[in-house]
Amino acid sequence: MLDRHLRLSGLEPFVLTPDIPFVNIGERTNVTGSARFRKLITNRDYAAALEVARDQVENGAQIIDINMDEGLIDSKAAMVEFLNLLAAEPDIARVPVMIDSSKWEVIEAGLQCVQGKPVVNSISMKEGEEQFRQQARLCLAYGAAVVVMAFDEQGQADTCARKIEICARAYKILTEEVGFPPEDIIFDPNIFAVATGIEEHNNYGVDFIEATRWIRRNLPHAHVSGGVSNLSFSFRGNEPVREAMHAVFLYHAIQAGMDMGIVNAGQLAVYDQIDADLREACEDVVLNRRSDATERLLDIAERFKGEGGAKAREKDLSWREWSVEKRLEHALVNGITEYIEADTEEARQQAERPLHVIEGPLMAGMNVVGDLFGAGKMFLPQVVKSARVMKQAVAVLLPHMEAEKAANGGGGERQAAGKILMATVKGDVHDIGKNIVGVVLACNNYEVIDLGVMVPAQKILEVAREQNVDVIGLSGLITPSLDEMVHVASEMEREGFQVPLLIGGATTSKIHTAVKIAPRYHQGPAVYVTDASRAVGVVSSLLSPSQQADYVDAIRAEYLDVAERHERAEAAKQRLPLAAARANALKVDWSAYRATAPQFTGTRIIDDWDLADIARYIDWTPFFQTWELKGVYPRILEDEKQGEAARALFAEAKEMLARIIEGRWFNPRAVVGFWPANAVGDDIRLFTGEDRQQPLATLHTLRQQVTKRGDRPNVALSDFVAPEGRPDYVGGFVVTAGPEESEIAARYERANDDYAAIMVKALADRIAEAMAEMLHERVRKELWGYGADETFTPQDLIGEPYKGIRPAPGYPAQPDHTEKLTLFRLLDAENATGVRLTESMAMWPGSSVSGLYIGHPDSYYFGVAKIEEDQARDYAARKGMDLAEVERWLAPILNYTPRKKDEAA
């Protein structure tokens, strides 16, 4: 029998297991909470509204809350239209949806069109038990989980006793009368503001925490959610105090069992490092420990207004008077390198052996870092800084350790917790995520052997055997890497390996690992790792003699269940035959369209780049995402949980960016081209001249085959290009920040500064993306000229308000990476820019971007999603490729299993 976990789904499942301590719910698709989203919905700009949802998913929201409750909006119609549009966007629809409304008719309308298993937010007994039962039964019939507000006929619950009474009554009705699965019940016992000056409010924090504790102990399998920012409304404008209040509250609430909610809260300081007086005062307020708690917090709050508290902490050098052991710990936790060499040398002189400094105070400090990171009280950039301090300390000790080793005949090496081999697989050049995971593992006393990028399977296995590693970790960003990981797993099975195999990277997923990789590697466990914050826990469990067997059994059972449910879900999805999908293609009124002719046809190299100008076009949100800080710039800088870490990271990024610009560290280059073009079926044919007599090349596109509701079309990129007989054009481009990033990063790594090495790569990626945005603007306004009257600012462009698109081969609108071969040949891209394609069609240098330009004003981004065998065969014939070769490149989007079909034949 399955464990009683909350199981939700969009296109992909989400299971709230015990190893997920807290679930963040994205709320920007809420007209009551986001002025921008409300404006987009009011103006019926659903394409831009979908981008808001996409941003949330890309920035790490595990569930997205959708609310259309606004007086000037037809909430029901807006909910239905938005959810239907969202369903056609696989990169958004993969996460579960929370249908949020105060109107039951809106919720039910949403339930009738949402796919997967959603959450209803919310139902309550405010209108009595009978309506509560009726709505709960409907939620159960629709297969939805529910948020239950602590709200009954008498009003919202404010005291612990009222919260418990209402939640217990609701739970009894739901589980005993309605038959609702208890794991699908999420209680919101109401977080109210404390320290308001009203005595009745003083116990609100305790009431929530104690009600949460009671719910988790007495209402089996139910969950608890809440909105944390409500707690500190009395201190709006004083972020350091709000930060401390939220950190203190969550410290106690999560321990009591709060496991999900919206934390828009103050930078969530490291609990143990909040100013002692401030922490005590906050704790007095949150836990209602003193009658004068509010007055004392108001008094102390004056010291922390604005940035006063942060600046005071920065200048506080009193820690330099502590013992050397405590100084080392403080330096590691706070990422301070200024004194590390002197302190390490002092510790060495006091120790019997240099090794004892590593195994003693340094590892003790890193254990503190690991504990804080695991508890969500430190963030990735801070951990990477800690690793920099550790590496510089070890560098001081290494010569002494080598001398001792030589004197002892080779003995005296320190014992690592385990040996991990990591590699970016063959054909892939992206390694930022892998490097971050390696740093975090090294911080936790694991020895990491990093083989770099584009590593073939045989080298991975040879080094793994030579070094007798305990774990192998594979990373990849592009979709062909998924197939290469399957190959590595198969080779590990063939050669008799039994060590755990970790899978990570942007295109990987638990479903892919369960369906494709784990079945190829029976002798050892294959485990998907979502991000750096999970890596240590996974590795620790896999290498623990006491935990390993149970952990591996649980993973295998979970993956078997994931694979079976995935197979059932895919079999249940209705897809159209290719002929029917083509019959439902996008219908464009081409008689009303007159394509603007570009300034030139053919190609042109663009090398007049100014790094300072490029910097103005940087979209900083993905930069923070690289560092696993989830949120949208600039709001992330004020985020209550992550804001302090985000501001520190941003300041250092701007400082390095200034050095990059001043020193011209990078040499950006680009090539752009335009060609006369027409759609021919599902393909786009390019011509040598305006007479369109001599074909130059063919760009092949793929068509959606998912069954659509109403009059929504099954789109292919060719639908946005005029058919034969009507003049049109298509463009293409390649941009790169340049190859210099690799050597600059390597120099930092040799100096034991992984933080700077990762920073320079992350900034190179941002520069390349900014170049793509900047060049597209120049194309629209000048080189092609169809948007000559644009007046958007660089920040406006992030929302893509302009006409036309720049889809990239290998991405959702055209998932076939081999189309890059045609694009690169047309542009002579390698000679023009130095960018080359690997055998897996990754671009090197990694900080490069390529794509097409399509100018029709009705064009938009979409996802092809899964395709059937009839389209794969048709596509292979059009491209003149073997079906097996096409299936290999399109493996992630095939809705059938070629191997099984071949065996059946």
From TrEMBL:
Residues 315-409 form the B12-binding N-terminal domain. Residues 569-899 form the AdoMet activation domain. The keyword S-adenosyl-L-methionine applies. Keywords: Amino-acid biosynthesis, Cobalamin, Cobalt, Metal-binding, Methionine biosynthesis, Methyltransferase, Repeat, S-adenosyl-L-methionine, Transferase, Zinc. Residues 22-287 form the Pterin-binding domain. SUPFAM superfamilies: Cobalamin (vitamin B12)-binding domain, Dihydropteroate synthetase-like, Methionine synthase activation domain-like, Methionine synthase domain. Its EC number is 2.1.1.13. Modular enzyme with four functionally distinct domains. The isolated Hcy-binding domain catalyzes methyl transfer from free methylcobalamin to homocysteine. The Hcy-binding domain in association with the pterin-binding domain catalyzes the methylation of cob(I)alamin by methyltetrahydrofolate and the methylation of homocysteine. The B12-binding domain binds the cofactor. The AdoMet activation domain binds S-adenosyl-L-methionine. Under aerobic conditions cob(I)alamin can be converted to inactive cob(II)alamin. Belongs to the vitamin-B12 dependent methionine synthase family. Catalyzes the transfer of a methyl group from methyl-cobalamin to homocysteine, yielding enzyme-bound cob(I)alamin and methionine. Subsequently, remethylates the cofactor using methyltetrahydrofolate. This is Methionine synthase. It comes from Paracoccus acridae. The lineage of its organism: Bacteria, Pseudomonadati, Pseudomonadota, Alphaproteobacteria, Rhodobacterales.
